[in-house]
Design goal:
The protein is 27% helix and 26% strand. The strands form 10 sheets. A 6-stranded mixed β-sheet has the order 6-15-16-19-17-18. Strands 27, 28, 30, 33, 34 and 36 form a 6-stranded antiparallel β-sheet that branches. A 5-stranded antiparallel β-sheet has the order 1-2-3-4-5, covered by helices on one side. With 719 residues, it is of the alpha+beta class. Helix 5 runs antiparallel to helix 6 and helix 5 crosses helix 9. Among the domains are: 129-323, Glycosyltransferase, CATH 1.50.10; 441-497, Maltose phosphorylase, domain 3 (Sandwich), CATH 2.60.420.10; 521-585, Sandwich (Immunoglobulin-like); 596-717, Galactose-binding domain-like (Jelly Rolls), CATH 2.60.120.
């Protein structure tokens, strides 16, 4: 093995897990060597393999580097990107995923593919819209997922950011106008169904993590996940509204201030409701009402996007330095969930997430974070001889994951982005573009990217030196700071760096705990002789339990019992457990002391017709604040996929209160009853008419099947 660069070792603070130099990755008995920029040899703990890389696909700039390893991995990523182009011109999600997925192609477009596969990116974005005429035309599709997807999942808005990136890279105004109309319709539809006016956040599960038991406590069903306002998804919504404002300005439309206001409102809400000042990170999600507390679990993609999309602001450096780092990368979620799962979102590293975190490190000026992310992605791509979807957090291996694929599109795009946007620092902005490189010492002293296309310009970009402090930038020999989109033809960009690379990281030892305790199971909360007593079931070996009343901690307790003086007001009570290393469990499902009224439906039939309704007569002996949900069944599909989550509107005395989300509960399980999301009400005492209606705008992603049974209305007195 070539001698390892000691400056790299110090900068990355690598544990004995692996080492990396300009030609070699070494990891115990596993090793990868770039024999040339077009030949990669590896032994991933088994039979040695050699990958012969073909010619660079058309449209990809040529990378010149003194590192044969980086040259080979760049060519491998370009080759795999070309292989992911389908016969129809759209982009498949990976070797094992031949379909086009909204979030996969959108993240990939934003990362790198707008630059090198613009036609494939546009074809893919178009493929994820409804065709034909009528109400369905012009809608952007949400991918299938938990409970029948949208609006349990609402991260399709990343489509907007991809479309804006594509415009910046290629400048096609006709496509921009088409994208703006589609994105505007999507935004208004999401705002109607998924905006929570109480917190200012958007409903929906954590972006891309659409495998329920891999991300959430076992008690959370899809209706609960819809109500859990997630960090990454909210950052995407904020950026989508900001991009809508940018689109409007570019097209000369007057709506930009309104979109900017929505973006600013969501950014403020994220900061107010999800920032954890003690940890220096954003928490992963708010639990559904009536809990509304923030999860102690966090996630890498959401924190990275918060840095990149200007949510974190001056806190960006702290976010990057605080996220847990383990020997093979940043865990997708932290801490890991205790209930048994094969590594996928839980207990895993995803290279595209690692890429976003590396780019966040660059944005925050943390060279160590960028360098480490680059090294982690290079290690995996070299040993696996492909850009895998994910790998096991603790072993660094692809073997043992629940689902995986070669040439996963967003992993491929991540590898390319670390070159274009990381090493060369390409930043596409509203008013022009710039190069702000970040080059580790082991890749110096010279890098070049020849034939990079930005709109009508073809650029040869040459970076001399290392670090991230730019001494000067020259365009065809003339000093510049920013390049114009009006630039046409062939040009040379030269950049001189001064050798400094600031920033540091604190890596966790493999022995440090990864997994939080299971959520306690609440048994009862009830009055007893002047006291309110909460009982729960949990592992008695845990360090301690924290009891939460109305979302705030009110005490700690060693045994699974807590009591406090009885209060005539209604409250919600929950509990968390704290285990080894201070890791806190997910919240238990809360229990309420409020009075409950339940009204049964006369005929809980299956229905799927606009204009149909189920009516209830509700008699309240008192007024005040309440939460209402319905008991429903949806047997139109499985609990983990498909697109038949039913939607209805809740009306009280003729006024629409909000959207009822009725996710799938299992194929043909029309007798399996569950709870919808709760909606807040303020009601006077007396009789009220409550209706569950199917309005014309209550449309899911299936369009044809929007079927459910509604068995009962439940109204609970709120605190």
């Amino acid at each position: 093995m070539a001698a390892m660069n000691h400056a790299l070792l110090l900068a990355l603070m690598l544990t004995p897990a692996y080492s990396l130099d300009p030609t070699t990755v070494q990891e115990g008995d596993r090793r990868a060597v770039a024999l040339s920029g077009t030949r990669l040899w590896s032994n991933d703990g088994g039979t040695p393999r050699v990958r012969e890389l073909g010619p660079l696909p058309a449209g990809f700039p040529v990378l010149e580097t003194a590192s044969p390893l980086l040259a080979a991995l760049y060519r491998q990523a370009a080759e795999e990107a070309g292989a992911d182009v389908r016969p129809d011109g759209a982009l498949m999600a990976g070797k094992e995923w031949p379909g086009v997925w909204t979030r996969d192609v959108s993240y990939s477009t934003q990362l790198a593919l707008a630059l090198v596969l613009p036609e494939g990116a546009w074809a893919s974005l178009k493929a994820k819209t409804f065709h034909g005429s009528g109400a369905a035309a012009g809608r952007v599709r949400q991918d299938t997922g938990s409970g029948g997807a949208w609006p349990v999942s609402t991260d399709r808005v990343v489509w907007t950011t991809a479309a804006w990136e594509l415009y910046l890279a290629r400048g096609n105004r006709a496509r921009l106008a088409e994208a703006y109309a589609l994105a505007r319709g999507m935004a208004e539809e999401d705002w109607r169904v998924a905006h929570d006016p109480t917190t200012g956040l958007m409903y929906g599960e954590s972006s891309f993590m659409d495998w329920r038991e891999q991300t959430y406590p076992a008690w959370m069903e899809p209706a609960d996940i819809y109500g859990a306002r997630a960090l990454g998804t909210n950052v995407l919504h904020a950026e989508a509204y900001a991009d809508l404002a940018r689109m409007a300005r570019a097209l000369g439309k007057p709506e930009a201030p309104g979109w900017d206001a929505r973006a600013a409102g969501i950014r403020r809400a994220i900061d107010r409701r999800l920032w954890d000042a003690r940890a220096g990170l954003y928490r992963g999600f708010l639990y559904p009402a009536p809990d509304d507390g923030s999860s102690f679990q966090t996630e890498a993609l959401g924190n990275a996007l918060a840095v990149l999309y200007d949510v974190a602001g001056p806190k960006a450096g702290r976010v990057v330095a605080s996220y847990p780092l383990y020997p093979y990368g940043v865990p997708t979620i932290f801490p890991q969930l205790a209930h048994p799962t094969q590594p996928y979102h839980n207990k895993a590293v995803w290279p595209f997430v690692e890429t976003y975190f590396a780019l966040a490190g660059k944005r925050a000026g943390n060279g160590a974070a960028f360098e480490r992310g680059l090294a982690d992605v290079c290690r995996a791509a070299a040993l696996f001889q492909t850009n895998k979807e994910n790998f096991v957090l603790e072993s660094g291996r692809a073997q043992g994951t629940a689902v995986n694929s070669d040439r996963q599109l967003w992993s491929v795009a991540g590898s390319l982005a670390l070159v274009y946007k990381g090493l060369f620092g390409l930043e596409l902005g509203e008013a022009g573009y710039a190069f702000k490189p970040m080059v580790p010492a082991w890749l110096g002293p010279r890098l070049a990217l020849r034939g990079l296309r930005v709109r009508e310009a073809r650029l040869d970009v040459v970076v001399t030196g290392t670090g991230d402090r730019v001494r000067w930038v020259k365009l065809d020999g003339r000093p510049v700071t920013r390049l114009s989109y009006g630039l046409k033809g062939a040009h040379r960009v030269e950049i001189q760096l001064d050798g400094a690379l600031a920033g540091s990281l604190t890596e966790r030892s493999p022995a440090q705990p990864l997994t939080a305790p299971e959520a306690p199971e609440p048994l009862s909360v009830e009055p007893r002789a002047g006291w309110t007593e909460l009982l729960w079931r949990a592992d008695q070996a845990l360090a301690w339990f924290t009891v939460w009343r109305d979302g705030a901690p009110v005490g700690t307790s060693a045994p699974p019992r807590f009591h406090e003086p009885l209060d005539a007001r209604p409250h919600t009570y929950g509990v968390t457990a704290t285990g080894a290393g201070g890791l806190v469990s997910p919240h238990a499902r809360v229990r309420s002391t409020g009075a409950i009224w339940s009204v049964q439906a006369d005929d809980p039939k299956r229905w799927n017709q606009v204009g149909t309704q189920t009516a209830f007569k509700l008699d309240l002996p008192l007024g005040g604040r309440f939460r209402a949900h319905v008991v429903y069944a949806n047997g139109a599909g499985p609990v983990n996929t498909d697109s038949k989550c039913a939607l209805r509107g809740l009306y009280v005395d003729g006024r629409r209160v909000g959207a009822l989300v009725l996710p799938q509960r299992g194929t043909d399980r029309w007798e399996d009853w569950g709870r919808s999301n709760p909606l807040g009400l303020t009601l006077a005492p007396g009789r009220h008419t409550v209706e569950v209606r199917q309005d014309p705008l209550d449309r899911n992603m299936d369009e044809a099947v929007n079927e459910a049974r509604v068995k009962a209305l439940v109204v609970v007195q709120a605190s």
